[in-house]
Amino acid sequence: MMQKQEFNKQLFDFLAASPTPFHAVYEMRGRLQEAGFIELQEQDAWHVKPGGRYFIVRNESSIIAWNLAANSDLTDSGIRMVGAHTDSPCLKVKPNPETESQGCLRVGVEVYGGALLNPWFDRDLSLAGRVNYLSTDGSLRSELVNFERPIAVIPNLAIHLNRDVNQGLNVNPQTDLPPIMAQLQGDAKITLRDVLKNELLTQYVDDVAEILDYELCFYDVQKPAYIGLNNEFFASARLDNLLSCFIGMQALIESDSEQSCLLVCNDHEEVGSMSAAGAQGPMLKQLLERLQPDAESRSRMIANSMMVSVDNAHAVHPNFADKHDGNHGPRMNAGAVIKINANQRYATNSETASLFRHIARQEGVTLQSFVVRSDMGCGSTIGPITAAEIGVKTVDIGVPQLAMHSIRELAGSDDPVSLAKVLKRYYQQEQV
To answer: Is residue 377 very low, low, confident or very high in pLDDT (cuts 50, 70, 90)?
Structure first.
């Protein structure tokens, strides 16, 4: 496993290059191919071999990569699985988004997931996503687009005009959040489709006849950065949950071929996971059926397997420590967190938690525990969904962070590489 500084540098590069799930999967695809993984198409017949490294992509926003053991049978050895998700709360552009107000072009947006909305004001916003278009030869094509430069902003209302704003701002997503993209000149009209067509023709391709549709979201152009007198922390957008995607991918790349292991990164977790590419969809189940077609052998394989669901955890906030159970307040840079919930919002049980603790101890890595206050509701992850859909024993873990679901989140700079070391050893466990 690479050292902390190099690991975090590559992590920062990955985060900056991944403003959408589409871009995250594109980046992961490139890194996996560089490491010798072969991309398979779901519509093709497969000829996978022991010792082979493969991956598939669905909807350009979900990805599964796996190593097949060179000298052991899937039925008896099972698969060491890690799961994460590629999506983050954001502002998605509506199909007909253009509105004019006071000579300015505003872009209508829809809130995706449980976003903290206040931090979106007064940020330098850019736009990225997938654009589907009709080419000049009459074929349907798609292209990933990323403007990269700031092209929009959601300005706050001055305190002089809203004297009570510091008593609490109630954000109306319909009226308060449309970003301002341009100032209109005279009778000039600007449509987003024209802007997209020009951007594609200028930066990407030369055969665009018509923009047919798109899936776009705004994002903050500020790059990931270290924070703190001693670089103890780092801040970035989309730490939940691209941080886990990167950690799981790096551990998989560096694992050997002695055991079969797998990384699945699903889209749509932030909105319930119910989609063809989500954890509640059939993507992972269908892959396992193709790897082990015989039903009885597949059931035995799953019984010998385990899933580590990796999704960031709530670190205890120094200014709001009372929001945590007094005995379960994880701190940044104190190790990954095992997440536990009596009502199965997390899939951890004593068996899976004990195994993961044992693996971490072998790497000399400390772990923490998180249980939500008994008088508060608990979030969830892909862990319980995958456990229920596949029937695989599961543990829910994650790096502790602050400002979860904000446009800019905070985590400890020591935690990513330490968790990657544990996952690498887990991938290579003979029995789970």
So the answer is: confident
* Cα 270 to Cα 85: distance, rounded to the nearest angstrom: 9
At residue 395, the 3 state secondary structure works out as strand
Q: Provide the domain count of the chain.
A: 2
Cross-strand pairs, 211 = 133
**Same domain for 167 and 182?**
yes
Q: Kindly provide the b/e burial profile for residues 9-41, where b requires at least 16 CB atoms within 10 angstroms of the residue's own CB.
A: eebbebbbebbbbbbbbbbbbebbeeeebeebe
Global pTM?
Answer: 0.97
Q: Which of 417, 430, 431, 65 is nearest to 253 (CA)?
A: 65
CATH number for the domain spanning 243: value is: 3.40.630.10
Alpha carbon distance, N-terminus to C-terminus of the chain: 22
State the pLDDT confidence band at 390, using cuts at 50, 70 and 90: very high
Q: Report the pLDDT value the prediction gives residue 36, as an integer from 0 to 100.
A: 96
* Tokens representing residue 238 in the block: 């989309």
Burial-class residue 271 by CB neighbours within 10 Å (0-12, 13-18, 19+): middle
Residues 306 and 355 in one domain: yes
The verdict on residue 228 lying in a domain is no
Both structure tokens of 204: 């990407």
